[in-house]
Write a structure and sequence with these properties.
Strand content: 25-35%
Number of helices: 12
Largest sheet: 8 strands, mixed
Helix content: 25-40%
Number of domains: 3
Distance between the termini: 37 Å
Radius of gyration: 24 Å
Structural class: alpha+beta
CATH superfamily of the largest domain: FAD/NAD(P)-binding domain
CATH class of the largest domain: Alpha Beta
CATH topology of the largest domain: FAD/NAD(P)-binding domain
């Protein structure tokens, strides 16, 4: 029987980033995914500033940006009866991709199927192991770990794996969540959608590339259209009723007719594949059940408006990975793992209704594709996730326990570039540097940085490996027992009191 510290089920963005983040923190893991390779279906096309900030710290932001280069000229959302007809711009000017006062991460448009290979390469280079075309068919949880049975689909062989912990990244219809009997709040399905991936030369009909097109016409097409990294590959999406039809009903002939109706011309079309999915909302009532943790779509799902689904999943993985590393490394107790649910679940519970309202604002209520519903505060949704109240929030941050550390440039390095595999002390004096050395904490003098006093004040700030503030001190550098205070703060961060908000 193979033994691993962490078994990850699901090879999408949440699973792959879990694999990468754990590997970079010295935790071996085994990821299994039932698909033989990366899907041709483009999903999760918007990578927000917070996720790119995390990718910077792990050294893959440039590679992800290169994967998104084919989308650099895209902007806006258009409504039309067909591409060949007149377009109405529902959203003509997008918010700037860079927020230089708030983060070094820049928004990136990239297909999930172009980003996944970047994550796979980085995770494997860091020591992670991935098994494609492999399905977990059963698992048993006990007090000490998880015993799973794997089915290698290409050979038919079965294998048992023993893991200390199981990360469920197996998607919206998570079989792991179902087997554990974890229900979801706010659960509702809005529509079922078939994605048609096709090849065609649409250049004569696309004088300007949109982020996506909403298309409705009497010819039978009602849905959306997006581009792919390959200039001649596109994806059309149409709603269907699963009570009366399935993916098998989307034959090549039918799909070709739908594409031509969307374009408004009798063009040559090559259908490459059809996939179905559901647009739904739901948040798991528990993110942890013993030795099992839900991340990404297995924990929460909502409509695509705001591009916050996969990004939130990546940030789930980021929160969980350092905690698993600390516990497996003997630096923290099991109570630290309870904070994963206590911190990440309220974020999803707050985002879900806001995203549903945002989706209705963009898509519902009128034949022209728009409505007067509520818009989303994008910057707050992207950077404002917090795990504790802040008594004195500032416009650019100001350090507050349980909140993301404020952005700060330290020369050519951004503060968040430092937060990867250990706690970091940002401070403003040699005395604090010495205290950090005595306490065994990595430290950086930051008082020379432009904006230090405005954003961090004075003293020292202890930041967790996920970039969230664990402790702040404004004690004078001349005060006694600085090292004791810091060591005590680190101990409390690794051995927290039981959560009180659940």
């Amino acid at each position: 029987m193979r033994n691993v510290p962490v078994l990850i089920v699901g090879g999408g963005l949440a699973g792959l980033t879990s694999s990468l983040f754990l590997a970079r923190q010295g935790v071996p893991s085994l990821l299994v995914d039932r698909h033989p390779g990366v899907s041709i279906h483009g999903k999760a096309r918007g990578i927000n500033q917070r996720t790119m900030e995390i990718y910077r710290a792990y050294g893959i932001a440039d590679a992800v940006a290169r994967a998104g280069a084919p989308f650099d000229e895209e902007s806006g959302v258009a409504f039309c009866e067909s591409l060949a007809g007149e377009w109405k711009w529902l959203v003509d000017a997008d918010e700037p991709r860079a927020w230089p006062d708030l983060t070094a991460g820049e928004f990136c448009m990239a297909d999930q199927n172009t980003v996944e290979p970047v994550l796979i390469e980085a995770a494997r280079a860091a020591g992670a192991e991935h098994l494609r075309d492999t399905e977990m068919i059963s698992f048993d949880v006990d007090a000490d770990g998880v015993t799973a049975t794997l089915h290698h689909r290409s050979t038919g062989d079965r294998e048992q794996v023993r893991a200390r912990y199981l990360v469920a990244a197996d998607g919206n219809r998570s079989t792991i969540r179902s087997r554990l009997g974890i229900a979801r709040t706010m659960e509702r399905t809005f529509m079922h959608t078939a994605n048609i991936v096709f090849r065609a030369d649409l250049a004569p009909f696309v004088p300007r590339r949109a982020l996506f097109w909403i298309i409705a016409n009497p010819g039978g097409f009602s849905g959306g259209l997006v581009s792919a990294a390959d200039p001649n590959r596109w994806q059309a999406s149409v709603a269907y009723d699963p009570a009366v039809e399935s993916a098998a009903d989307f034959t090549e002939h039918r799909c070709t007719a739908l594409v031509r109706a969307a374009v408004g011309a009798e063009i040559d079309v090559e259908i490459e594949g059809v996939g179905v999915w559901e647009q739904a909302v739901g948040v798991a009532e528990q993110y942890r059940r013993g030795r099992v943790f839900l991340v990404g779509d297995s924990a929460h799902v909502w409509p695509p408006a705001g591009a916050l689904g996969a990004n939130t999943g990546v940030q789930d993985a980021h929160n969980l990975a350092w905690k698993l590393a600390a516990v497996l490394g003997g630096r923290a107790g099991d109570d630290l793992l309870d904070t994963y649910d206590a911190e990440r679940r309220p974020v999803a519970e707050a985002l879900a209704p806001a995203i549903v309202a945002h989706q209705e604002a963009r898509m519902g209520g009128g034949s022209d594709g728009g409505s007067g519903g509520a818009e989303l505060d994008n910057r707050a949704a992207v950077l404002g996730a917090s795990y504790a109240p802040c008594p004195e929030p500032g416009p650019a941050g100001r350090p507050c326990v349980g909140h993301r550390a404020p952005h700060l440039w330290l020369g050519a390095v951004a503060a968040h570039d430092l937060f990867v595999d250990e706690f970091v002390l940002l401070c403003d004096s040699p005395e604090w540097m010495e205290a950090a050395r005595s306490a065994g904490v990595r430290a950086h003098r930051a008082d020379h940085a432009d904006g230090w006093a405005e954003r961090y004040g004075s003293g020292a700030v202890l930041v967790r490996p996920d970039g969230y503030v664990a402790w702040c001190s404004t004690r004078a550098a001349s005060a006694p027992d600085l090292a004791h205070d810091l060591a005590d703060a680190l101990d409390r961060a690794l051995h927290p009191a039981p959560p009180t908000n659940r």
